[in-house]
Amino acid sequence: MGVLDGRVIIEVRCNELTMRDRNPHVPWSPDEIAADAAKCREAGASIVHFHARDARTGAMSGDVGVYADTIRAMRAVSDVLISPTLGASTIADPHERVAHIPLLGAEAATRPDFAPVDLGSFNIDPYDPATKTFRNETLSYVTNIAGLRHEIDAIHDSGVLVQSVLWNVGSARLLGAFLDMGVLRGPVYAHVLLANTFLAAHPPTVSGLRALVDFLPDHPDLHWTYSAVGANALSLVHAAVESGGHVSIGVGDYHYNELGAPTNADLVAEVVRMVRSVGREPATPAEVRQAFGLGA
């Protein structure tokens, strides 16, 4: 039996895109993110994904010092595993996009555990059915194969594990190709990104989830999770867990106003309740470290 048999990884996506006018509990500053991470860990989370943001305005920040301060603050209060962003469509050049990971990885105190790489190129095309318009018609997140290989190599060379982010079936097939080539190696952490408004991604429905999961490569050491951008991810917890998957959730992806603007820890507690209702338990950070071969 594997260390994660019967265990569910709960990853928190704490402050992706949501602003405080939609949910006042989105953490921005390093200390806020650290305090939020500690509460999520206590509730049952094992990984926290964060974006560096301006502490006053919430604007996205590419300052490596903010990343470093955030990781130090998180490590001081919790043993949760840490996954900072690469900046996604806000940084066009793949070399610039990943540049902070080697800098953070140079010191044990600031080295992340995971770093996400979006496998493919996608239109950033949020569609608003209420107005029948796209909120953006010009922005694309473009990364060719050479750029992806650079990002992956830079992350590996920094002692950090790649989280392969999959938007669609093409992403899943690319993951299989990279594993076949040895560009990526196990253990594999695959992230099935579902989205309500980004049409390049699969919809956040059971059929949308299964349509992508069906194309995951057959690898003996692959673990997958899912998230739902712009949608309530709780609706897919049972479908994912019963299919052998894990859960990534947070107010950064969606405001959850229909639940009264909960905190990230509130969402984690609800996921824990749901996974226990089907006979599973939340994985601890120590169990996740062991499963992925990460040092203490």
Automatic annotation (TrEMBL):
Indicate whether Transferase appears among the record's keywords: yes
Instruction: Tell whether Transmembrane helix is among the UniProt keywords.
Output: no
GO MF, one annotated term: metal ion binding
What keywords is this UniProt entry annotated with? Answer: Metal-binding, Transferase, Zinc
Give the cofactors, semicolon-separated. Zn(2+)
Its name, as the record gives it, is: Unannotated protein
